[in-house]
Amino acid sequence: MNQQQIRSFTERYLRLQGCHIIESGPAHITTRLSIQADKDLLNRPFYWMYVEKMNIEPQPVTLNLVFDPANQPPGLKGEALFFGAPRFSQILRSAQKHGRFARLYQVPKGKEAFASQSKAYTPWLGVNYKLSYICDQKKDRLLSLGINLISGEITPDFYQQAQSFQWQSKLPAHRHLLPPRLSLNEAVGELEYVVHEQIQNEDLSWAEQAQERCEAELAQLDSFYPDSLSEEAERDKKQRREEIVWQYAPRAELHCINAGLFYAEAQTFS
Predict the structure, then answer these.
(1) Mind telling me which InterPro entries this protein's record contains (predicted)?
(2) Which of 142, 207, 209, 250 is least buried, going by the fewest C-beta atoms within 10 A?
(3) 116 lies in which domain range?
């Protein structure tokens, strides 16, 4: 996820959470958080407990979020936002908490909004995933995939493409929906199969190296314990082996951040 995508995601999150954008520069955003965003992103439970108990006017925090530290305004004190940064991780968790699933309809452009004949909208399922590569180290990356629920066509960078259009929560006038041929379960299965194929085709040397480190740790553990063990020592050894395997054994985990049904004109996504 590059910095432009992180900024775009952050701006959309702030808008949807009702945060006030005070200043938006090429390298940063200054925003006053909404009450809900403050509760999600800042660890201030006692403050909010006091505010709500005393029924006083809340004062949400103002944040300076920096996307390009090399070019931020002189004297500006802010938080660098990048993939893996604690604050961006909090934003992802908050977005997952409040926006797990959406249903959106493409806003017609220009004269198309006043068409006299009804126009068909095609259903798409869009899913944002976090793919984690885990061993004794961890690396995360975001995937955004969409699948046409009629043809089964799958498109990458779905979220980025969707941002090029306007969306609303109600079906526009003079539009009707084509019935899907794929169920949501079938569509999700197709997307997860694509992700599995991507993983299989990647450079897996990191997993091989992690497995070697795991086997070395297990061999060292075996050399530490004698051949003949008491029952208690055998339990300790077994527990330690399980801990080593959990820490070092390579694996990939896929988590859904959020998803949505997108109803759009034909050829909107490619």
Answers:
(1) YqhG
(2) 209
(3) 102-270
